[in-house]
Fold this sequence. Notes:
Blueprint lengths: L5 E6 L12 E6 L3 E11 L4 H5 L19 E11 L7 E15 L1 H8 L12 E13 L14 E5 L18 E3 L3 E3 L2 E3 L1 H5 L6 E5 L4 E6 L8 E8 L9 E17 L2
Parallel strand pairs: 3-8
Antiparallel strand pairs: 1-2, 2-14, 3-5, 4-5, 4-14, 5-13, 6-12, 6-14, 7-13, 9-10, 11-12
Amino acid sequence: MKHSLFYSTVIGAICLSNQVFAETVTFEEKPYLRQQLITEQQVAPAGFGDRCGKHPYDASQISVKDVPLDAGFVGYQSQKRLSAGKAECEYDSNIEHHNWLEFDLSAYSDFADNQAQVPKQGADATLSYLAVSANTVIDKNNAGCEALDKPLLETIRRLGPWPVNMDRSSVTPEVARTASDYDFDGSIFSYREGANFYIKRHSREDGENGKVTFVFDQGVNIRDNFQVTFISTPNPSPKTKSQCLLNLSDITLHLTYEKP
């Protein structure tokens, strides 16, 4: 697998032949897996399920074809739908969009084991900066969007593969899928509720031209596979027909190592 891995020295210089590192070395990595995720809330009158049944939204209808792996979108859509095609079975469907990404950092471990140019976390170097950044822009097709004065990107979480059923082979970057619920000691929580079990441990920096950066606390360990999920803000008016999407691009993981 080809890695989009490169580095730049901030202080001093690097001598690859002797594996002598600068005091500070910065790397950038692009995601190699992406899964658009949705959660759906159905708002219907009492007794609706008994009369009309429930027909969850088919997430595979959402296409992400031709969207680069370092891009995606978050936000929400709400619309009226019919259950079983019956006019008397109309209800409100509220869909929230989230963006799950995985970065392959195995190259760092492999190179470190081979004493190549990547500084190994620990005795040789310490990870001092870990952040995920993205460029954001409001979708031009938004309609009936009531909350453009609020961030459509609520937060980011370091969620592992559980939102995609723990099976990376089923990841389909070209389409969306329904996010998995979270099973915590036998209690089932929705995707958004489950995400709240993960401590934030990051700060948010909003820059110019829609640039957003989430900086994780120092001391966060990294492994061969590093996952994050961009989580959309909840829909404040799920019964109002609307589309409020925020497009993400140039999503990048930043790592800085310090040599003792």
